[in-house]
Amino acid sequence: MELQTIRADDSATHVALVGRLDLAGVQQIEMKFTTLLAARGKPAVVDLSQTSYLASLGLRVLLTTARAVSGKGNKLVLLNPSPEVLQVLQLAKIDAIIPVETDLARALTLAGVK
Fold this sequence. Notes:
- The structure is a single chain.
- This protein is of the alpha/beta class.
- The chain contains 4 helices and 6 strands; from the N terminus they run E-E-H-E-E-H-E-H-E-H.
- Helix 1 runs parallel beside helix 2.
- The model has no long low-confidence stretch (mean pLDDT about 95).
């Protein structure tokens, strides 16, 4: 699993997760992911278009981070998940808790980026 930082400025954080968000993947990115998104607390977009697998530990990381961002008055939005990842998000009802978008401009707007 690779965490790519696309944007991390005063108004937003935008990252991409590339690979499998399973036990090994979570161990590789969790600290950096949490620091970039939860600790900063800025509106956030997480691109899942190149995430090929999402395990329960990955769901936990996404939920925990979304709650932390929300606790600072902002939103985390998931962007363009692959069909397999979208199915997991829907089955676990995560898409009812964390917004899922397919368009970057809409995702940024929904996250609250001005």
